[in-house]
Amino acid sequence: MYKLIIELNDNQHQIDQNGGLLNVKLSTQKLSITNHFLMEPLRLNISLIADEWLIENLIDCETTVYAKVKLYNDANLLYTGYIKNDGISLSYPDSKLDIIAYSNLQLINEFGNLQLKDYVSNIMNVSLSDVSNILSEYIFNKTGIGFSFIGNYQPLSLIEDIDLNIAYTVKPPPNHPGADNGNTETYFKKRGFKTSGNETIYDSCVYELMFFSPTNTDTPSIYTAKSRVIRRRFYNKICEIVEDYSRSQTTSTYSEAKAVLDEYIATDMAELQPGSGSSIGNYSVMNGEEFPAVILFMFIHYSGNVIPVTISLNQDATALDAIKIFCVLFNVSILSNENGDLEIANNYFSGGISHGNVTNKCISFKLNKGNKTIPEFDGLNKLIGDTTLLKRILVDYYIEYIKSSVYAEFEIIADTEINIFDTVEINGRTYRVVELQRFLNSEICKIKGIRVL
Fold first, then answer.
1. CA trace torsion 160, 161, 165, 170 (10° rounding)
2. Same structural domain for residues 174 and 203?
3. Which of 26, 41, 121, 234 is most buried, judged by most C-beta within 10 A?
4. What sections of 78-197 are H helices per DSSP?
């Protein structure tokens, strides 16, 4: 026998099939494969006869209230979610009350727009556990509904050896006759790495002293001191911000120009604290031509996993933005379980139960062949830095990951409990469950599975 328990303000109200519970229906549980921005909560449609407690606490209450809902089949807990009193309808004269309950995943969508910078100690170093703890506490304070994020998940490991970009390119001018020896051309350079939290910085400086002596002796000679400082900031492993500063001053004598150049160098050296040289961690400098060749170029090279475990976010990023980013970076989905907790699991999770050959339990079966759908990664723009390279690497990964575009839709008699991530074998092919609809008064399950290659 099915029974429904509604918990509100430390009070419990129970309705069963003998006491007003007319009908309950669960929606389809879905595991998102190609759109990590879609988090679809599991819904429970409830029809019952409104009694005095329900009318007083849900209908007549003028403020918005959140109530926890639990559905049992005898002693077995099937579903935990919540209802809001602004999402119900009451019809007369039969006093029929229709309610839609949502799994706690919907609370993430409803309350996820809080600005993270107001809740984390450092918006530049945010973990998935940081966000999940903030959300669960915030939602409990707003609604009184408690739940936890659980699961054993791992970030992706995408190892790359890549040149991130050119640090700087300089085309020196041709030699000019100098003031002291008739052929002076002076360059200075400084470069080095340093780290600060989740930020890796590489500084490079170029200094030039140029002399121009016109053929017309009535025209005074021109001396120019030039300074160019390029600071490259790397966040989220390979997301870059470039700061490029140049300045110059022209004088009429060599000594004046040299004094200006010395001042440039002294100022820059004081502001740009010494780095660690040509490498730090996964970063290194790949030199091209050295001074005073015609062209100087310098690559920053990255070698290692490009997926960050903690992320650096823009100031306007919300908790929901961060959750979506982690879903993409870790290739995870978030599902509500029967206790109301939110399970985080890798989509490539292989620990689901294998139910073996269920061909003889299959009532209907249909294969669908579709095109590969690559996830959209617009949400990554909330990360600090240029995400172009990171997006490209992720697209390549997901093209390979979404190998199978063959889906099977089938109905089976499930004499054992089947869950998302489980596998079944039909007609010699193995399918991993990505959508699941249970019918509460039947052993039949409607399943969508992706073929395992």
1. 170
2. yes
3. 234
4. 105-111, 128-143
Q: Return d(Cα 177, Cα 212) in angstroms, integer.
A: 7
Structure tokens, 182: 């008739």
Q: Cβ of 141: how many Cβ atoms within 10 Å? A: 9
Same structural domain for residues 163 and 151?
no
3-class SS at 130?
A: helix
User: To 10 degrees, the CA torsion angle through 440, 441, 444, 449?
Assistant: -10
* Distances in whole angstroms, Cα of residue 364 to Cα of each of 27, 86, 258, 444: 20, 39, 86, 11
Q: Please state, in angstroms and rounded to a whole number, the distance separating the CA atoms of residues 230 and 243.
A: 6
Q: Could you tell me if 167 and 36 lie in one domain? A: no
Contact (Cβ atoms closer than 8 angstroms) between residue 312 and residue 130 = no
Cα 160 to Cα 163: distance, rounded to the nearest angstrom: 10
Does 36 lie in the same domain as 150? yes
366 part of a folded domain: no
pTM: 0.85
Rounded distance, CA 83 to CA 69, Å? 7
Do 231 and 316 share a structural domain? no
Same domain for 325 and 389? yes
**What are the tens digits of pLDDT across the range 153-175?**
888 999 999 988 655 555 444 44
Q: Where are the beta strands (DSSP E) in 255-377?
A: 279-280, 283-287, 296-305, 332-336, 342-346, 354-357, 362-369
Residue 437 domain-assigned (yes or no): no
- Asked which of 249, 281, 305 is the last residue of a domain, the reply is 305
Q: Which residues of 211-234 are buried (b: 16+ CB within 10 A; e: fewer)?
A: bebeeeeeeebebbbbbbbbebbb
Write out the residue range of the structural domain in which residue 171 sits: 159-305
pLDDT tens per residue, range 279-292: 888 988 876 544 44
Residue 327: Cβ-neighbour burial (10 angstroms; 0-12, 13-18, 19+): buried
Tell me the C-alpha distance between 453 and 389, whole Å.
29
Count of structural domains within the chain? 2
Q: How far apart are CA 119 and CA 322, in angstroms?
A: 13
Strand, coil or helix: 84 = strand
Q: For the segment 307-324, what is each residue's pLDDT rounded down to a tens digit?
A: 999 999 999 999 999 999
Q: Please answer whether residues 88 and 98 qualify as being in contact, where contact means their C-beta atoms are separated by less than 8 angstroms.
A: yes
User: Of 305, 333, 363, which residue is a domain's last?
Assistant: 305
